[in-house]
Design a protein that fits this description.
By secondary structure, the chain is of the alpha+beta class. The chain has three helices and twelve strands; from the N terminus they run αβββββββββαβββα. It folds into two domains: 111 residues, 3-Layer(bba) Sandwich (FAD/NAD(P)-binding domain), CATH 3.50.50; 98 residues, 2-Layer Sandwich (D-Amino Acid Oxidase, Chain A, domain 2).
Amino acid sequence: MWDYSSNNGGSTLHIGRVVKAILDDSTDSIQGVELDDGTILPADKLIVACGPWTEQARSWFPPHVTLPPITGVKCHSILVPSPNIFQQAVFFESEGAIGDGDLEVYPRPDGDCYVNGFQGDEMIVTERPGEEVVEPSAIQLLQTAMELTSSELGGLEPHTKQVCYWPETPDGLPLMGVLDGVEGGYVATGHSVWGICQGPSTGMAMAELVVEGEARSVDLSPFRVGRFGGGSE
């Protein structure tokens, strides 16, 4: 998809961390963004799609621009080489018997099992992307849970130990729509654990909103930014 966009649509990928949204002083319209290395990228549209790091985007804008609150939930996972143990996803409901949370196991075509569970507390995310700290105690909890729930998974040594955050909003619904007070500003975030599943429909709806002025494929009214007093329809 990206090859097609870049080869046929003239799209260009820029990798960097945005530190400021550049606005026209008289109209508050988007003029571009500034990256942490000082690079200025001209733009007339800006979509804040930072997931659990949306809170950090507050510093991009002047004080009169309000972003709704976004928190993050930290969750560890491991990859265990385990061909043919499971043929479908398995969700273990322990009611506290294996810890404060439940275990989820997803078999992959390459023979690995993706194992996660026992999420942390909801919080404002301060760890930067790619610098999330993997907590040994959380990894050990996953391995202990495997031993208690599966004689075949138990004892297998994971080859990958990792952690991620998922974003949450106060009412559990995503934020998708126009960012109030910024002409050309939009938000698309807060999909909780369903971001991968909802990504394609979100992308289509936001593309329609940005290019055509209205989303046709998805009714965005339940997800409007203004429901928290920080945006409009």
